[in-house]
Amino acid sequence: QLQLQESGPGLVKPSETLSLTCTVSGGSVNSGNYYWGWIRQSPGKGLEWIGSVYYSGNTYYNPSLKGRVTISLDTSKNQFYLKLRSVTAADSAVYYCAIVNAASYNVNWYFDLWGRGTLVTVSS
Amino acid sequence: DIQMTQSPSTLSASVGDRVTITCRASQSISSSLAWYQDKPGKAPKVLISQASSLETGVPSRFSGGGSGTEFTLTISSLQPDDFATYYCQQYSSYPWTFGQGTKVEIK
User: Chain A neighbours among B 37-76 (CB < 8 Å)?
Assistant: First the structure.
């Protein structure tokens, strides 16, 4: 059974880079069955899709964050990653990793499975 | 971006009640809508996709309806496990966007 687990620092200083890891168990990030992605939830903006990556390395980002975000994956570690640069207090949120089922020809971009989330606070 | 608006923001109900949550899209999204249940400390869970298709393992007391710009999530008989926050999400148009949530609390 596929499971996702987020990890990373709970506190990041303003202007620095937020880095999170999602560890996948029960499945492989090197399969074409899923898009591997990140979503965040903050009190001010609710749920916001950040972006997703496919096993091929193709990435899809929310334009609201494009330029600051990089999502990548490491097949040898069966993990994927989020890097968000130049953070401010507005980036404080619970960050979730989540997957989209890519098995069908027409992909329906809803999130089949989520991790439990990790709280990141941006503060000096 | 397509804006998703849920109502009400909070709903107080009792066990056994029938409850309905509404989600409106700022433009037509056909049936490209999913509903999620979110509980503190747990992973959010998808309940319904394609506006009305129940995901595997989701109790039949949950149902979804609508198309175009107006959608509903109905719980036919509220159970203790159903007190949670519910979100809708559109996947018709990139970037994918969510409603602000409806908290179902005990009356």
Answer: 41-46, 49-50
Contact B12, B105 (CB under 8 A): yes
Query: What would the pLDDT profile of B15-72 be if each residue is shown by its tens digit?
Result: 999 999 999 999 999 999 999 999 988 999 999 999 999 999 999 999 999 999 999 9
Question: Which residues, 6 or more positions from B34, have their beta carbon under 8 angstroms from its beta carbon?
Answer: A110, A111, B46, B47, B48, B49, B50, B88, B89, B91
Task: Please state whether A73 falls in left (phi above 0), alpha (psi between -120 and 50) or beta.
Answer: beta
For residue A89, report the phi and psi dihedrals to the nearest 5 degrees: -60, -30
In angstroms, what CA-CA distances link A68 with A99, A122, B59?
Answer: 21, 15, 40
Cα separation of A35 and A99, whole Å?
6
Q: In terms of CA atoms, which chain B residue is nearest residue A119?
A: B41
Report d(CA A77, CA B77) in Å as an integer.
45
DSSP string for residues in B52-85: TEEPTT--TTEEEEEETTEEEEEESS--GGG-SE
Phi, psi of B82, rounded to the nearest 5 degrees = -90, -5
| pLDDT tens by residue, A71-114 | 999 999 999 999 999 999 999 999 999 999 998 778 899 999 99
Residues in B touching A4 (Cβ below 8 Å): 43
Give B-chain residues touching A49 at CB under 8 angstroms.
95-98
